[in-house]
Amino acid sequence: MTKLRNVAVVGFAQLPVVARDEHRMSTEMLYPVVRQALADCGVERDAIDYQIAGSVDYMDGRPFGFVAALDVMGSWPARQDLHLEMDAAFCAYYAWVRMQAGDCDTAIVAGHGKTSEGEPDRVLNLQLDPYYQAAIGLDPTSTAALQASAYMARTGATDRDFAAVAARNRAAGARNPDNQLRRAASADELVKTPWAVQPLRQGYLPPIGESASCMILAAEGKAEKLCDRPVWIHGVDHRTELQTLGARDLSRSAGTQLAAQKALAMAGVQSAAAADVVELYANTPAEELIVGEALGIDPKAAQPAINPSGGALCANPVMSTGLIRMGEIFRQLSGRAGARSVSGARRGIAHATQGHCLQQNIVWVLGTERRWT
Amino acid sequence: MKRPVAVVGVGQTHHTSRRSDVNIAGLVREAVDLALKDAGLEHKDIDAVVIGKAPDMLEGVMQPEQFLAGAVGAHMKPLLRVHTAGSVGASTALTAVTHVASGLYERVLTIAFEKQSEGNAMWALSPNMPFTPPLVAGAGGFFAPYCRAYIARTGCPPHIGPMVAANARANARRNEYAHLREPMTVEDVMNSPVLWDPIRYLETCPSSDGAIALVISSEEKAKKGPRTPAWVKSGYSYAEAMWVPGRDQVSPAAGRICAKAVYDKAGITDPWNQIDTMEIYVPFAWFEPMWLENLGFCDVGEGWKIVDRGDQKVGAHLPVNPSGGVLCTNPIGASGMLRLGEAALQVMGRAGAHQVDGAKTALGHAYGGGAQYFAMWIVSSEQ
Asked: Domains along chain A?
C-alpha cells in the first residue's frame, strides 16, 4: 500500500437523539453541535479550511434544505464547500480524499435530517426504482424483512437469534446518554413484541428519531494541535451494489465485504477481528449479522466489542447515524466514551450504510497511533 | 491538486423538453455510453462514479443514484452523490477531479442529469420555508430582484437582456445538442411578455431533459487515450451564507473569491486577455453582464457595456457561451456540468460548429442557491 497522508478525527459532537425536536428546524439543530465540535477543538470556524454536509431534501420535505446549513456552519466569508445527498459518513470520506489531494488540512463534516417532518416509511419508499419497485408499495421495513428472510433461509438463524442481537444492543445502549431508547430490554421481552413485517418484530427495529452531528478532521501537523488524543484514519473504502433487490444475494453484503477488504489492506490489518471495538450501522438484527459476517467478525468471540453504543437499534437519526458510528469509535479510542468505554481500546472499525438492504456501505479502520511514518 | 488531471471523454444527450422514449436510467445511460466511447474506455476501466443532480423533487425519486447504480456501471464501485443546488453539475465534476488528483483513483466517471419532464420544476423550486414568506414563483421570481438591483446599480439599459438572449440563441443554432434552436431576434425578445420584472419570457431558460457525463483521468492514463485531453488547470467550489447583513447578492463575494482562486492557481492575472472563451451559468439573460463583472472580466458597471458592444459574441474578443448556454438548454442538475464539459470541448478543439477558433484556455462556471454556491474550473489545451 502506498504511503498516504495521516488524517485524524479530532472532534465530534451530536445532539441527543429524540423522536421529535418540536421547536427547531433541521439546521437549527445543527448549529449547537457545530459550535460544540469547534469548542472541543478550541478553535473558531476560521481555523478550518473545508466544509461538507450530508442531508437529504426528502427528509426535510422541501428542496434545498441544506442551503440553510451554510449559515449555521459559519459560511462567512465564503468557504470551500460541498454538500452530499448522503449520510454524513460519506461526507467524511470525501473530506479525507481532499486531504489526500493536498487541497485542505482541516475539515468540518456535518450531518442533519428532520425525520419527524414526514412518515419515514412512506418517504423512503421513494428511494426505490420508481418504475418497478416503488410502485408496489415497498417500504424500508418490508425490504429489510425480505433481507432478514433471505439470511434466515441461508444460515438457519432464528427469531430467537434476532432477539438476542437486539437485546445485546439494547443492554449496551442503556449506558449511552445520547440514545433515544435507553431502557435495556431482554431477548425474552423482545421476542414477544408484535410483528412489524415478518420475520422482523417491532422490538428489532430502530425507533424513528432525529439529531444532528458534526465531526472535525485534521491532517497530521494540525491534528495534534486540535486534540489531545487524535484518532487516526488507518484505512477506508466504500462500495455500492445494485439497488434491484432481485439482482443480488440479499443474505450477504458483498459491498461491505469488498470495502472491508480494501480498508483493512490500507490499514495493514489482517482481519477485522484484530479490532478492539466495532460500530455497525444496522437497521435490523439481520443486517448486523450480515455486516458482521461480511467483515469477518465472530459475534460470539470476546473481541471485538460490537456496538457498545447500542447501535442504530437504540437511535437512528437518518443522515447522522453513519457519522455517529465513526464518532463513537473516536469517543472509544480517545477516552470520551464514558460508561460505555471498552477498556484499553486502541483500534476500531466503523461501518455505515445507506439505501435499502445495505445497498451502499463504507468501512473505516481507526486507531490511536498514526498509520504511516 | 497533488498531480495533473485531465478530461478524456465527454458525452451528452440531445437536450429537449421531453424525452418520452427513455426513462431516467435510459437518459443517463445514453450520456455515459457516449462519454466512455469518446474516451475509448469501458466500464471496467472506471474506478469510481460521482453523480450530481438538483433537487430530487424534480423527478420525485429520492437519491435516484441508488436505483441508477446499475445503469451507470457503479456496481461494486465507490459511488458518491453531490447536490449543491444549481451549481451541482460543476461541483460534481470537481469532486471527480479531486478523486483523481488525490492519487487514489486513476479514472473517475462523473455524471449530471435532470429529467424535468418527470415532474414540475416550478413547484419543486418554490419551497415554503419556515418563517420566510413563500414566493411560489420558481427561480425566476427569486432572481428577478437581483436583476433589478443590478439595473438600478449600473444603469444597464433595457435592451441588454434581449441582446444577451438573442445572442445565446444565435449560438445555440450552431450547437446540435441545444434544446432551443429556433431563430429569435432582439425584437422577438422585447415583444415577449414580462414574467417577473425585468425578466421576459424569452430571457428565461427552458425546462429540459438531458444528461452529460465526463471521464476524468490521471496524466498517465490520459496520455494513453485516443484523443488530446483537456487539462484541468484549477477548480474550486465556494459557498456563502444567505442571511448575512451586507451580503452583496448582485455580485456575491463567494463568486469573486472562487474566480480569484481558479485564476491564481491557473496563473491567470488578466482574465479578459488570457481566457479565450467561457461557458458561464446564465439562466436569466441579465445574469450575463452580472457575472462578467463578478468574474473580474471588467469593472463594476461595465458588464452590460461588453454586451452592448458585442465583445462577447462568437468571433469577437471573448465569446461567452458559444454553446448557447443555460438560456437554450437547462436540464438543471446537468447545466453546470454542461458548462464545464463545453469548456473542455472548446480547448480540445472538438466543439463542432460552435467551436471558437484557437481556443486554448477556457473557463467553466456555475452558480446555485440564492447566488451562494459557485463552482468553476479553468481548462487548457496545454498541460
From this structure: 7-119+208-226 (3.40.47.10)
Which site among B1, B20, B49, B75 would you substitute to test the A interface, given the most A Cβ atoms closer than 10 Å to its Cβ?
Answer: B75
Q: Which residues span the domain enclosing B24?
A: 5-121+207-222
| Chain B CB contacts of A63 below 8 Å | 55-57, 124-125, 127
Contact B56 A244 (CB under 8 A): no
* Whether B190 contacts chain A with CB within 8 A: no
pLDDT, tens digit (0-9, with 9 covering 90-100), for B108-154: 999 999 999 999 888 887 777 666 666 667 889 889 999 999 999 99
Helix A140-155 / helix A285-295 crossing angle, nearest 10 deg: 60
Grid cell in block for residue A324: 455517529
Total domains present in chain B: 1
Please give, rounded to a whole number of angstroms, the shortest distance from the CA of B210 to a CA of chain A.
18
B236 and A80 within 8 Å at the Cβ level: the answer is yes
Contacts of A82 in chain B (CB under 8 A): 82, 84, 91, 95, 237
Residue B42 within a domain: yes
Residue B310: alpha-carbon gap to chain centroid: 22
Contact A202, A331 (CB under 8 A): no
Which residues 6+ apart lie within 8 Å of A265 measured at CB?
A1, A235
Alpha-carbon dihedral B139, B142, B143, B146, rounded to 10 degrees:
-170
Maximal CA-CA distance, chain B: 56
**Domain for residue B18, yes or no?**
yes
pTM of the model: 0.98
> Which ipTM score applies to this complex?
0.98
Report the candidate in B151, B168, B162, B53 with the shortest Cα–Cα distance to residue B111.
B53
State the amino acid at position A173 in one-letter form.
G
Cα A142 to chain center, whole Å?
21
Tell me, yes or no, whether B47 lies in a domain. Answer: yes
Q: B219-254: buried (b, 16+ CB within 10 Å) or exposed (e) per residue?
A: eebbeebebebbbbbbbbbbbbbbeeeebbebbbbb
Set of cell numbers at residue B142: 427569486
Q: How far lies B214's CA from each of A92, A124, B66, B102, in Å?
A: 24, 30, 19, 18
Q: What is the CATH number of the domain that holds B76?
A: 3.40.47.10
What tens digit of pLDDT does each residue of A242-253 get?
999 999 999 999
Residues 6+ apart with CB under 8 A from A224: A230
List pLDDT tens digits, range B348-357.
999 999 999 9
User: For residue A311, which of A173, A146, A157 has the smallest C-alpha distance?
Assistant: A173
Task: Give CA–CA dist B10/B334, Å, rounded.
Answer: 13
Q: Is residue B25 part of a domain?
A: yes
In the structure, what pLDDT confidence band is assigned to residue B1 with cuts at 50, 70 and 90? confident
Q: Quick check: A101 and B102 CB within 8 A?
A: yes
**Angle at CA of residue B254, ends B162 and B197, nearest 5°:** 30
* pLDDT value of residue A63: 86
The cell for A363 is 468501512
